[in-house]
Write the structure tokens for this entry.
Amino acid sequence: MKKLISFSLLLTFLISCSGGQKAVKGTAWMFKSIERLDEYNPLMAPDSKSEFYCPMRKKKVDWEGKSVFNPTAVMKDSRVWMLYRAQDKYGTSRIGIANSRNGTEFRKNPLPVLHPDHDTMEDFEWEGGCEDPRIVRRDDGLYVMTYTAYDKKVARLCLASSRDLINWEKHGVVLTDRKYRNHWSKSGAIVCERDGNQIRAKKVKGKYWMYWGDTDMFMATSDDLVSWRPIEDKKGNLSRVMMPRPGLFDSRLVEPGPFALIRKEGIVLLYNSANSASSGDKTLGADAYSVGQALFSAKDPSKLVARSDKYLLTAERDFEQVGEVNNVCFLEGMVWINGRWLLYYGAGDDKIAVAEMKE
């Protein structure tokens, strides 16, 4: 009996480590490496001189004085447009925007483009703010951005849309069902494909798909990119599609990065992860944030096929290892420009950095 129990525990552990997926031979589906563009890093840092009249506080605030981090990016009019999270001294987050011709030298707009206001989202966004944007483009040219509304108690995944990247319409929380109204939800990464230098949301089996979550990973589907329904199991609970793995860099949590990209091998998702202090990768620090890779089925985006056992990016530079939160590389931005992938990520939770990713 003891041998049977031991074998059962071993089998459970192995399944947990593999994420429950079948083994996939080879690494052809993976991106090979990331090279930091150190001559430009950190790409952006806090700016105490930036002022914004906050309609909630009824006074001017240094809206990006404490930190700038966790950027997303999209190509428009042959420019890279970066939307990024900025915090003031009170810890309230707003989303700013900057643009660049070459993807490495940016010019910021002086004011945020999405922020807490006296609107329908006031109760959800104040006073934590609007956090961690991720952006995709619909075929008709509409830009759709997922972001996190934080009221200092619960984080809620939300959505906004725009035609010009400057003026945004808030569409509310993504999980509209009453039973999920106060469910902690973040980080919406939508399945896309690359068409030239454009990244467009792509339907699979007649629906758009989104990965979301920041401990375990879940999914939702949509007909129009605006209204979403979470995927549930047969018992009516949220269906987990990926979980942390003991012993590895992603042992404490897994969280979607930028959009998920359809490639010939399947759907590749770059994801953020944290290392467990007690049961993680002993070569990494406790709670160190790294970037991993996962492959999902192109026929069924909820089916995990493979995962990398080695991180693609982890904190190694001083500006990544020391910040508001130490040892953090947090990826949300990815564009195809001049024949290469550029990645934009939060470093140390208070700066923005850029890297080139190799196919």
In short: The longest helix spans residues 2-18. The longest strand covers residues 67-76. Confidence is low (pLDDT under 50) at residues 1-23.
